[in-house]
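ok so i was messing around last nite and threw this chain in just to see what happens. nothing serious, just curious
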Amino acid sequence: MKKYLIILIISCFSVQLGIAQTQEEKKLEKEESKKQKQIQGDQQFANMKALIKSGNYIFEANRATAVGAGGISMATNPNKILVDNEEVDIDMPYFGVIRAGGGYNGNPGITFKGIPEKYEVSYVEKKRQIIVRIIFASSTETHNAKLTIGKQGQTNVLIISSGRNNITYSGQVTTIKQKGFH
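result:
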C-alpha cells in the first residue's frame, strides 16, 4: 500500500512538472509569435511608407459613407485617387447633400486632375499609419482630402468640401502597376 502511495505522489509531481514546462513553452511560443508579428508589421509599414514616398500609388474605394446616410457599396461605381509623382487624378462619386457650387445636372462627383494646392504626408509611427492630406479646388468649390493609410494599405478617406457635406470612403491603396495604369 505504501508503495502505491509513493508511486502516486511521484506521479503527481511528474505531471505537475510536465504541465509547468508546457506552460513555460506556451509562454515562450506566444512571445516568439508576438515578436514575429511585430517584425512582420514593421516590414509591412516600411513597404507602405516606401510606396507613399515613391509618389506613385492609387486608392480605390470599396465603400462610401455620406453624412446622414448608410454605407454604399462601391463595387459597381468606378472611383480612384491616383497619385502619379506631383500630379493627382481624383474621380470619386459623391452620395450626399450638395449645399452650393455644383449640382446633379453635370458630374455630381468629386473630380480633379492636376497639381493640387497642397500635398502633405505625415507618419504616425506608433499606430503604423500614414496620413496624406490633399487640398484641391474645382471651378466652384475647394476640397480637403485626408487619407489615413494602414500598414497593409487599408485606407479611410475623408473628403471635406466647401459646398457639400463630408463623405468617407474606405478601401485599399496599391501600386499603380498593380492596377495596370503604367
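not much to say yet. The beta strands are 56-66, 71-73, 80-84, 87-92, 110-114, 118-124, 129-137, 142-149, 154-161, 167-175.
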